[in-house]
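User: Study the chain.
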Amino acid sequence: MTTSTRDPIRIGVLFSETGVTSAIETSQRLGTLLAIEEINAAGGIGGRELQVASRDPQSKPSLYRAHAEQLVREEGVRLIVGCYMSSTRKALIPVLERWNALLLYPTPYEGFEYSRHVFYTGAAPNQNSVQLAEFMIRKHGSRVFMVGSDYVFPYESNRIMSDLVLERGGEKAAEHYLPLDARTEDFAAVVKRIANAAPDFVFSTVVGEGTAMLYRAYRAAGLDPARMPIASLTTCETEILQMGAEFAEGHITASPYFESIDTDDNQRVIEAFHARVGEGLPANQCWEAAYFQMHLLADALRRADPDDVESVRRALPGTEFDAPQGRVRIDEQNHHTHLHPRIGRADATGRFEILEQSRHRVRPDPYLVSHTLADWSVSTALHSGA
């Protein structure tokens, strides 16, 4: 079948609207839809609009794979955006490889992966883990308790954090994992172990609904974030909305993006987002990556043959965009993205006070070849008392 140059360009959208990670994935879906609306309002791709083919994988890896297979095989979709958990991304890769499709993945992840069928727009370990380890040891101490959800990302992220802490003369007090469907009492038991171990800080790779349970149990146990904070790569504004700001206040997150970034580009996009969905939903790092990756894709489609996957794949590397976090760029060598690392501390309003940030965007090093902070060493301490 010959594709008309006036036909819409269909984009597969795989973000969960139900299930344990639905809150954060719903925000990613909304960021995607906002960008698509902007792209279509500006004339689309040579006059062709982007058309959404959305499915709800319910936070289940098997459904991500099934929906991707159906979109690609039966509907001819070759461009997909989506996934939050690494287990869901990994479930998609065989489908992408088999049918020569592309995935844009807007979530921070554990690194140590390359697929010519995936473009990674969330932070790699050298854009969040390295900065977080350095900051926590410098400000709070070197003895860490690790707690995570039971799947790929937490295991690998804890392995990386263990190496970073040990390299700096630190100590791992313990490492514990909970199932994605863990209950409130499970988190209370873990927090009791944390209290007994008395680390300098806790490194959390808990995701989904468990995040709120962990932070609530932490406060219920009387643990003080000023003395022993939880540090995370994934606890962002959306999870704070779920748990309540009082439970997150004082805890730390490393991220390229916070809603509180005070720039004209960020404020413009935030205003457009709130005009679309109302004031109740905050922006977050996964929302922002889902938003800017659509603009990167649109730019590549304008310079490529949008009906030829190979042409789009060649056009994406080197593509840049003025994202809410700052100017981002897809690396020409590894399909990951140049980003702007930041350290934030949750405040009483559910937003993040930005404590430190890099002066320049950081090139992605997904295999963590270097553990140095060459870019971070010129970071700006925004609050000297932090």
